[in-house]
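Record 1 of the preview.
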Amino acid sequence: MPGSSAPGSPPARPLTNSLTAGKLPRNTPLWVLLGSVALVGIVFLLIDIADEASSFNWAGTAFFGTVLFCVAIFALSFFVEGLRKAKDRLVTALVSAAFVLALLPLVSLISTTVINGLPAFLTPTFFTESQRNIVGAGGGALHAIVGTLLITGVATLISVPIGLLAAIYLTEYGRGRLARGITFFVDVMTGIPSIVAGLFAYAFFSLIFNDPGIRFGFGGAVALSVLMIPVVVRSSEEMLKLVPNELREAAFALGVPKWLTILKVVLPTSLAGIVTGIMISIARVIGETAPLLIISGFTASMNYDLFSERMMTLPVFVYTQYANQGADFQAYIDRAWAGALTLILIVMLLNGLARLIARFFSPKLGR
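->
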């Protein structure tokens, strides 16, 4: 019968007791974490009261609370469940702590930017006016937003065809020294400082137009494209390499030319990853300040012409508002925070758009 033991054998222990003996309750890690954070929070609160501090140290509470949680959960599990289970819980706690620590700067950055930038961001004139003839409060960042969109858009139009074609060559055609040389220089370009790209664009157009004081938006687009191209090449190359060779071979077996196989099979299969890489490259350069300061300059007026006069961008707007404060310094600082918040929202929008495009264009697998 089930649960009975054979004659002469020791009686079987109940199954439920063997599974639950020496085991912490399921919600123990959560309660230990809350208790650790609460304990550290109380300590920081007492320190703040003693020092008469005006703000609570949330980052320190989260950090030291997580460290205390790792120590507490290991000790508690060791005394109740044994060394093996305690090691498992410690590693799990360390992985979770690493995630929390990596998330803290992001949360702190976004919360600080939102708190400081929201008042100026919500003003009616921020998206409808420029800074022309504004020396104190008022005005907006319309000229910087338009300049950012124009320069980044042209940089994308320059970078995507060049980067994608280079990635196709390296993946489908490249062999020998030429391919290795292209790969080497792409890797070198990935790590160049952004200001070098601005100096290159400035020197290039200064020599062409024989104008040492040249400043215009298209030069900024060229500088950003120098930074974008290697990112597009590397990301697109990796996505193209993920396409199974069986798909290429099946197309070749049907008599499809190689160029048509790339166009109709390889690119559609990897399109989602390629678009994601392009969006990441745009987010990488949209916040660059140094190259645009050199070749695009800065202005307080609207400028829709990429080939004439200086053009303002959001990163330069944030820098100039913070560095060149007027008599009403708080208005300048508020506009700088609002410009930073606008940049973050644009990057978040681009990443969300990349996810939607990747989901829409990803290959549909049938059952």
